[in-house]
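Reviewers of the previous submission asked for a worked example of the structure-prediction workflow described in the proposal, so we include one complete record here. The input consisted solely of the amino acid sequence. No template or homolog information was supplied to the procedure at any stage.
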Amino acid sequence: MVDHIGKILIILGVILIITGIVLYVGGRYIDFGKLPGDFKWTSGNTTVYFPIATCIILSIILSIIANIFFR
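From that input alone, the workflow returned the following structure tokens.
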């Protein structure tokens, strides 16, 4: 039981490190949050933001990573 939890924590740590590196390095070249398809609506003091394109890209990247680890 403890071995299983240890493996899960190691895998989650590796995933977090990879995600951090991708966001750190990718943030220099791809402006996450300001991609075409991310909508921003401002009215007075209210701003509503819909990061649709960013969510789709992150979903694809995380799906690929999950498939690599769980196959």
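The chain has a mean pLDDT of 83. We consider this example representative of the routine output the project will generate in years two and three.
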